[in-house]
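Box 4.2: Ligand-aware structure prediction
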Amino acid sequence: MKAYAPGRVNLIGEHTDYTGGLVLPMAIDLGTTVEGTAVDGSAAAGGDVRLSSDAEPDDAVVPLDVTDPSAVEPPWARYVAGVVSVLRPATGFAGSVRTTLPIGSGLSSSAALEVALALALGFDGPPQDLARACQEAEQVASGVPCGVMDQLAAAAGVAGHALLIDCSTLTVDPVPLPAGVEVVVVDSGVRRALAASAYAQRRTECEAAEHALGVPLREATPADVARLHDVVLRRRARHVVSENERVRAIVGAFAAADHTMIGVVMNESHASLRDDFDVSTPELDALVTRLMRTPGVIGARLTGAGFGGSAVALVHTGSDVEGRRVRAAGGAHVER
Ligand code: GLA
């Protein structure tokens, strides 16, 4: 069996997925292929999933009855173990991983691996179920209580389109990218420090804000947010509520090819992530400022969880902007 899954870049809608909000990622034209064959051996008979990788020196060898994926070595094998622990394949599997994705620079290489592996192991079902299974795999592998965006973008990508995902229903609406616009990703060079604990803390803060408000953040209004007494919770909630609005606004701006509005909304998103959600870094702020001043750039913002990682910019086609150009690509599939 051979299966492929793309990485993703999120255009806007950051730290909204785990409160059932709106996100606008796109699957990209870089991704991961898992190829291999089923081998004899049940869990009781000591069967395992064995993979080599062109991006890693050491193989992943994961027993079918693995119990703690987060403790598996080498570290990349934790994602393999996460998928094994969620899917519990009946027999072993031996094969290889090839990837064109840079590892650890914010393009969801781990989600691509999980989704490609799940398909190679025979997962069969709608993209939403595939994404949910792989989200759980990511959580048990990394200890980060991530949302579903990365895995669903990898599972449901559509060439030439971003994906408007409603994370409360997991409906996916493909949104065409405006003509004359390209997507550029620039790595800040800062690896994510403390990302796991800080991410979990943001999630807890959002839950606390919802508890204090008595309504899900997805349904909260700016007036609701203003009623929160706790300053930190108010800022966190303000980010989420305004970010959901920005996703709607940019979808409208895409349809109208309103480049000015696209730029304004992206830059507001970055400011909100920096000032209210506290997930930017000085390097990301400097990078986004530099990008915004570069001729040809329509808008720029940090992308993904933050705390390091990459910025995304929308630029005029053909403009001379530093960084990696990515195209909106199709989603994960089995290759025969
Ligand atoms: C990471 C998580 C996603 C999402 C983003 C922030 O990429 O895996 O679920 O929460 O951060 O938008």
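In the box above, the bound molecule is alpha-D-galactopyranose. The pocket of alpha-D-galactopyranose is lined by residues 10, 14-15, 17-18, 146-147, 149-150, 304-305 (CB under 6 Å).
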